[in-house]
Amino acid sequence: MTTDVESSAVVPTPAPVTVPPTGPARAAAPVPPVAVTPVPSPAPHTRASRLAAHAPSALLVAVDVVAFTGAMLLTGTQGYKTLTVLALVVAFFHNADLYRARLNLSVLDDTPAIVGRSLAAGAGAMVLGGLGDGLAGTARLGTALVFGALSLAGRALAYDAIRVTRRRHRLRQRTLLLGAGTLAGSLGRNLLAHPEYGLQPEGLLDDDPLLAEEERPVPVLGGYADLSRVVLEHDIDVVIVTYGSVREPSMVAMLRTCDRLSCEIFFVPRLYELHALTKDTEVLWGLPLVRLRRAPFRTGAWTGKRVGDAVIAAVALLLLAPVMVPCALLSRWETGSALFRQTRIGLDGRPFTLLKFCSLRPAPGTEPGKRWNIAQDQGLRPFGKFLRRTSLDELPQLWNVLRGDMSLVGPRPERPYFVDEFTRQYPWYDARHRVPVGLTGWAQVHGLRGDTSIADRARFDNMYIQNWSMWGDIKIMCRTVGEVLRAAGR
Predict the structure, then answer these.
(1) Which residues contact 115 (CB under 8 A, 6 or more apart)?
(2) 159-163, 292-296, 335-339, 408-412: which has the minimum mean pLDDT?
(3) Which CATH code, of 3.30.565.10, 3.20.20.20, 3.40.50.720, 2.40.50.140, is assigned to 173-296?
(4) What phi and psi values does residue 288 have, to the nearest 5 degrees?
(5) Which of 8, 430, 73 is CA-nearest to residue 259?
(6) This prediction's pTM
(7) Total Cβ atoms within 10 A of residue 106
(8) For residues 344 and 414, what is the distance between their CA atoms, to the nearest angstrom?
């Protein structure tokens, strides 16, 4: 559902692009980007780094399993129905981030969440086991209460063990501070003085350090452009963003290059003295640090997205074959070719061959690689107009989805020529290629197709990537079906 130009010709060397002033050429004043070395794949962490990152979470899961076993033995409720309490507890605790490795470990802070979710798990087990169970159902609720008490006691011991281990300089995570001002210096000194947080500062990064050399708790390892190199060379686990010499819009683009690095990112919020604490906030010696949400494509749910794409695309190709075969035959009769192939830019800036039903017989002597819109092209014939208006010309891209070139939902792919031009005009445009491109997307269902703002499209796409969820993809696909049925495509 986008404006495309049909051609299998090689796109010529980019030259200054001319596009309608109401659409792609409309630009806000660009922010000069900070050049950062691109990182195509995650950094290989050492065994010690992996242990420091995952051992606390594994320990807490083990504590809860032991606590639940003890609760069953104390209440005498052994049985498969009682195990539903454990399944619900693990799900509820995971949803509340009670298994996430944290800097601050406090049983008192966790008590309301643990008690409340233990009761909810017991009540849920009563319902799932059948309200007619009578005393057995009540006993499962009692098991949940005993488990909550044992879990709190177990976590108190586990938290003490983690803190002691960290003070002995084990389970430490290598930490990089972005910025070399007063706040970064204070933060670095606090990390060195309080090893119980589990963060070992390795260095500072800033183009124009404000701290004198004798004031720096750790050395300056380079400028902002060295971020990827420093993270890889020093095996960095945690990046903390403080106030530095770089402008915030450039910082956003720079941190996006870390999306494929295996490190957590925290940042000190502006006006942090007024910042309200949330579950994503850690307090480090009185200073709030906000944990940046892990990029969705670094989570297990993203694997489910790829599996779902492949299954849905395969089923759709089979079910839509009665529609696709006539479309192919009529396209060939009207234009001389059933399909056209065109180079597009996909994940990580890699080119791939996109498929569509041919709706236009290209006129000789044109340069389709540079043409933005063919809506008024004289070569567009009646059936071609119908294909584009109903978006049926996009159906062969289901094969691209099945092959893994594309996803069902994601940023729409563009031709290399325009990718080069738009990246020069809009520094945030290239961030769209952090994930696979899609058959439809968040920008498209908001009407950002054809001669509309490229800046807006890129912002919508990046917002989709940053806030991706499986339910969000379902909503986009439902809205896409509605637009197709209304023949709203181009």
Answers:
(1) 148, 152
(2) 292-296
(3) 3.40.50.720
(4) -75, 135
(5) 430
(6) 0.72
(7) 12
(8) 5
